[in-house]
Amino acid sequence: MRTRPLKVALLGCGVVGSEVARIMTTHADDLAARIGAPVELAGVAVRRPSRVREGIDPALITTDATALVKRGDIDVVVEVIGGIEPARTLITTAFEHGASVVSANKALLAQDGAALHAAAEANSKDLYYEAAVAGAIPLIRPLRESLAGDKVNRVLGIVNGTTNFILDKMDSTGAGYQEALDEATALGYAEADPTADVEGFDAAAKAAILAGIAFHTRVRLDDVYREGMTEVTAADFASAKEMGCTIKLLAICERAGDGASVTARVHPAMIPLTHPLASVRGAYNAVFVESDASGQLMFYGPGAGGSPTASAVLGDLVAVCRNRLSGATGPGESAYAALPVSPMGDVVTRYHISLDVADKPGVLAQVATVFAEHGVSIDTVRQQGKDGEASLVVVTHRASDAALGGTVEALRKLDTVRGVASIMRVEGE
Amino acid sequence: MRTRPLKVALLGCGVVGSEVARIMTTHADDLAARIGAPVELAGVAVRRPSRVREGIDPALITTDATALVKRGDIDVVVEVIGGIEPARTLITTAFEHGASVVSANKALLAQDGAALHAAAEANSKDLYYEAAVAGAIPLIRPLRESLAGDKVNRVLGIVNGTTNFILDKMDSTGAGYQEALDEATALGYAEADPTADVEGFDAAAKAAILAGIAFHTRVRLDDVYREGMTEVTAADFASAKEMGCTIKLLAICERAGDGASVTARVHPAMIPLTHPLASVRGAYNAVFVESDASGQLMFYGPGAGGSPTASAVLGDLVAVCRNRLSGATGPGESAYAALPVSPMGDVVTRYHISLDVADKPGVLAQVATVFAEHGVSIDTVRQQGKDGEASLVVVTHRASDAALGGTVEALRKLDTVRGVASIMRVEGE
Question: What is B347-426's CATH number?
Fold first, then answer.
C-alpha cells in the first residue's frame, strides 16, 4: 500500500460534510485498505469558522474555499455546499488545479452538468455525484455502469423524501396538505421554506440527472415538466382509494415516440396499491428502472439525511481515489445518443378527472362528446348527485397530455360544468 | 473513438450466452459508444457445434475452448458455462494469455474466488461477476463500489428465484411442497433436477460471494450453513400466517460477536408480512443491505433468466472493456479484514417451534423448564389440544442456534413430547 496519503478538501461542513469528515476519521483504516492508500482531510471550507466542529482539527478550517481548491496538492474536492454559485466556480477551479471532484449538488448538476463534465474531461479528472440523487441509494453507478450494456426505457421513482412523508401522512391519516406539512416541518422532514421540495424543484433536478444518464442524452432542469403537490387534497386521496390507488409525487423519465425522443416530468400521480412504489413509506425513496434485457429493477432506501448522503459521497470518494492511484478516470458524461426532449404535451398516460356538474339529464352526454372530439377515450365514468349538484369522475384510456389539456379547456367552457375539481395522472399500470 | 475493435470470446452459448451474443450484435453501436471502441465477437466455444445458433456466424463456433482462450488476441473472455471444470482452468488460462474475464459462475466463485482473484491480479487483469448473484440486479458493484465508504453489517435476501416461486405458490394457494414444485417445473422455473435450488446450494454459493464482498473477508461455500426448503409444509405456512409472517428461503450474512466475526447461512425462515422481502413474488429476487451510514437499502429485480443475466454480463463487459482501453483494472478482491467465519451455533435469532405433546397437565411446565435450562427465553406459547393429542407452539426471544439445538435435543427426550413437528427461524424483525 502507498503510504503517502491522498489529500481531500471538503467544501461545506453542514449535516453531510460533518458526517463525511467524521467517517473519514473513524473509518480511516478501512478506507485506506479499500483505496490502497490513506486519505487525509487537508482542508475544510466553511462560512462560519467560529462554530465548533467536533473531531475536526481547527487548523484545517478556512473561509477561503477558492484558495483551498487552488492549492494544487489536493487530490479530491468534495463539494457539499449546494446551490449554483460559488459551487460551480469552485468545482471548475478544482479541475483546473488538478483535483477530481465528488459532489452532492443536484441543482448544479441538473443545470450545468454538461459544462462540469466538459471541464472534468478537459482536465482528465473525475466528476462523481452518487449523492446527488436519492441519498444513499446506489442509482447513478448502477445506471451508468451496471446497465451500460442494456437499454433503459423508463425510470419511475419517488426521489424526494419530504413530499413522500407528507403524502404518506395524508394517505394514512386523512390529513390535509397543510396539516401534514406542519407535521413534516415539526419533525424536521421539511425545511422552514419547503418550496424546493413541495413544488417539485428538487425532484425535477434529480429527474434531469437520471434521464440524462439513462438515455445517454443531455437533459437539463428546464427540460423537465414540473408540477408540485401542494394542491393534492384529502378528496384526491379518497378518489385514489376508490380506484385501488394511492398518490405519490413521481419523477418519470421515458423514451417517447418509439424511442426517438425522451420525456422527463415530475408531478403527483395515482399509482395502484399493488405497485411496489405504493408501499414506500415515510421519507424513503425508491426508483424503478425498466430496461430491455433486465426487465424491472427497483432500488430502495433512505433518500436523504446526513449519514446516508455521506455514505454515497464516501463510495464515490473511494472510487475516485482508486482512479487517481491507477491514473485512470471513470465513466464521464455519456450523451452520445443526443435524443430530443419532447414537451409534456407529447407524454401519453391515463387521467383521473373530477368535474362538478349540474345535476340534470344530458350532462354526461355533453361531457362524453367533448372527450370524443379531442380523441380521448373514456375508460370509466362515475356520477354522483346530491341537492342539484353532481360530480362526475372520468378515468380515461391512454391519451396525450396535449389532447387531455384540450379536453379540459373545452370542458371548462360547458355551461353544465361548474368546475374541474381535480386532474390527476394515473401511472405505474 | 478507437476503431480497432476489442475482441470478446464467449465460453458457452446456452440461454445466457446466446442472449449476450444477440445483444452484442443488435446493440453494437450503443456498446461502442459507451465503451469508446467497437467490440467484436471473436469466437464462441460450445459443446454441440452442430446446433443452429441464430445470428452467430458459424465460422466463430468452436469446440476447442482452450485454444480460444489461448489465442492471445482476446481482450475479454465471457464465461457462461457454469460448474467448476473446465470453467476454472479456462478462466486462469485466459488470464495467463492476456484476457480479462467476465463470469456468471456462482458455484466456481464461491468455491475458488480467492484463487481466481489471485490469478487475475497476478496478470493485472479484471475479474467481474455481477451476473453470478441475483441475475440482473446490480448488487456486486453497489456492494464493492457504492458502499466502499460504508460499513455493511448485514445482507439479507431472497437470491433464488426457483425456491421463491415455490414458496410463493405454497403461500398463496395453500399447496404442498411437491405440488408447488411440480408447477414450477412445468412452467420452466425449476430444472428437471431441482436439487441445487431447493436444497439451498445455489443460494449458499451466492451468500458466500455476498458475504465476502460485504465484509472484506474470504467466505467460501463450505463456510455457509445451508438448509433446504423441501421440508417446509402447508402447516408451516399456516403457523406463519398466525404469526403475521410468511416463509422465504433467505440468505443471511451478518457480522457476529460485536463485529469480530461474520456468519453466512441459507435456510427457510419466517419473516413478518410488513417486511419488504415478504412481498417479493414469483421468481423475483430482492436483497436488503444494512450499513452503518446508509441504513437499509433494498435491491429488487429478476434473479435469473437469459436476458436479465445477459444484461448483468454486458454491464461488466462494458466496464472491463473501458478498463482495457484506459490501461487500468477495477477493484479486485478485498479481503483485508480477514474476519473469522463463526459456526452456525453462534448465530443469534428467534425461533418458532411446533411440538406434538401429550394432552395432560404439567406438560407446558416441563417444556418451559427445558427451555429455561438451556438459557432460551420464551416469548409466547400457544397450546392446542384435541383427542388426547396436543400441540404446543413456542416462539422464543433471541437465542443462539447452539442453545436452541440443545433445547430441542432435550425436548425430544421428554416422554410427554411425542415429536418436534417443525423448527423455523424468525428473521427480519
Answer: 3.30.70.260
Task: Determine, for residues A317 and B149 on separate chains, whether the beta-carbon distance falls below 8 Å.
Answer: yes
CATH number 1.20.1250.20 is the correct assignment for the domain at A6-132+306-326? no
C-alpha–C-alpha distance, residues B292 and B255, integer Å: 12
Going from the C-alpha of A413 to that of each of A202, A222, A352, A385, the distances in angstroms are 35, 31, 19, 21
Residue A320 forms contact with B (CB below 8 Å): no
Average pLDDT, integer, range A370-393: 89
- Cross-chain Cβ contact B317/A23 below 8 Å: no
Which residues in chain B are contacts of A141 at CB distance < 8 A? 138, 141-142, 145-146
Phi, psi of B26 (to 5 degrees): -70, -30
B128 touches chain A (CB under 8 A): no
Residue B386 pLDDT greater than 80, yes or no: no
Query: Across the A/B interface, how many CB contacts are shorter than 8 Å?
Result: 197
Q: CATH number of the domain at B141-302, please?
A: 3.30.360.10
How sure is the predictor about A249, in pLDDT bands with cuts at 50, 70 and 90? very high
Cell of A358: 349540474
The CATH number corresponding to B6-136+306-326 among 1.10.3720.10, 3.10.290.10, 3.40.50.720, 3.40.640.10 equals 3.40.50.720
Q: Higher-confidence residue: B134 or A215?
A: A215
pLDDT 10s digits, A324-338: 998 889 888 999 999
Phi, psi (deg, nearest 5) at residue B135:
45, -120
CB within 8 Å: A295 and B312:
no
pLDDT at residue A417 greater than cutoff 90: yes
Q: Which of A19, A147, A315 sits opposite B148 (nearest CB)?
A: A315
For B301, the closest chain A residue by CA position comes to A297
Q: Do B27 and A307 touch (CB under 8 A)?
A: no
Is the ipTM of this structure higher than 0.95? no
CA B302 centroid distance within chain: 13
A333 to chain B: closest CA residue: B34
Mean pLDDT in chain B?
Answer: 94
Q: Grid coordinates standing for B223?
A: 463456510
Instruction: Return the CATH architecture of domain A140-302.
Output: 2-Layer Sandwich (3.30)
